[in-house]
TrEMBL record:
Protein name in UniProt: Endonuclease 8-like 2
Domain FPG-type: 179-215
Name of a matching Pfam family: H2TH
Lineage: Eukaryota, Metazoa, Chordata, Craniata, Vertebrata
Keywords, sorted A to Z: Acetylation, DNA damage, DNA repair, DNA-binding, Glycosidase, Hydrolase, Lyase, Metal-binding, Multifunctional enzyme, Nucleus, Phosphoprotein, Zinc, Zinc-finger
Length: 228
């Protein structure tokens, strides 16, 4: 699943074509006939990172009346109804609703589950989850209901800050710098732990955390209880 900054960059690159007409098409795709785009108007471009998908190697080229063209490579292409992502839950939208995000995180469930719930945090993927939790000093399995309002605020701050910084880095050709994701040691030199966590019956995602920098809440619960 692409994370927010990746698809947001795509959105930024395609936006200038909105309002233009397709005058010529090219490429090949098994699912879509490129010629079917001929003479259509490019009306909108939307970020919908929640759409999961397999790998595809289609190619589609759209030439516009302006003389410029868009070429899509290795894209998953399909016809779909309107995306359902609300801008209020899009972590990179100026309409992102902080209060709504805080309320979702405060639920009585591990915060690492809530962060990956695309209905609450559209665009938030596994890298952002791991990095924001580490930076906020919060154990991934901490129940949101046991965290203080201040801790939840700090977590949302790190989600937005890391995502925004990652997006800016993409435009500047800079690698995003991770501190915990796929690391063996945290920046303080502690041994990092790695487990797959996810809701019962749901998708289990690899999670990296530092037991020392990210103490568990509640501290006495055995960790096995949360493993699938
Ligand atoms: Zn540490």
């Amino acid at each position: 699943m692409p994370e927010g900054p990746s698809v947001r960059k795509f959105h930024h690159l395609t936006s200038p074509f909105v309002g233009q007409q397709v005058v010529k098409t090219g490429g090949s795709s098994k699912k879509l006939n490129p010629a079917s785009f001929q003479s259509l108007w490019f009306q909108d471009t939307q970020v919908s990172p929640s759409s999961s998908g397999g790998h595809a190697s289609h190619r589609l080229v759209l030439h516009f009346s302006s003389g410029r063209f868009l070429a899509f490579y290795n894209c998953q292409m399909s016809w779909s109804s309107s995306p359902v992502v609300q801008p209020t839950s899009d972590i990179l939208s100026e309409k992102f609703h902080r209060g709504q995000a805080l309320e979702a995180l405060g639920q009585e469930q591990p915060v690492c589950y809530t962060l990956l719930d695309q209905r609450c945090f559209s665009g938030l993927g596994n890298i952002i989850k791991n990095e924001a939790l580490y930076r906020a000093g919060i154990h991934p399995l901490s129940l949101g209901s046991l965290l203080s309002p201040r801790q939840l605020e700090v977590l949302v701050d790190h989600v937005v800050e890391f995502s925004t910084d990652w997006l800016q880095g993409k435009f500047q050709g800079r690698q995003n710098h991770t501190q915990i994701y796929q690391k063996e040691q945290c920046p303080a030199g502690h041994q990092v732990r790695k487990e797959a966590f996810g809701p019962p019956g749901g998708f289990q995602r690899l999670t990296w955390w530092c037991p020392q920098c990210q103490p568990r809440l509640p501290p006495d619960e055995p960790e096995q209880a949360q493993l699938s």
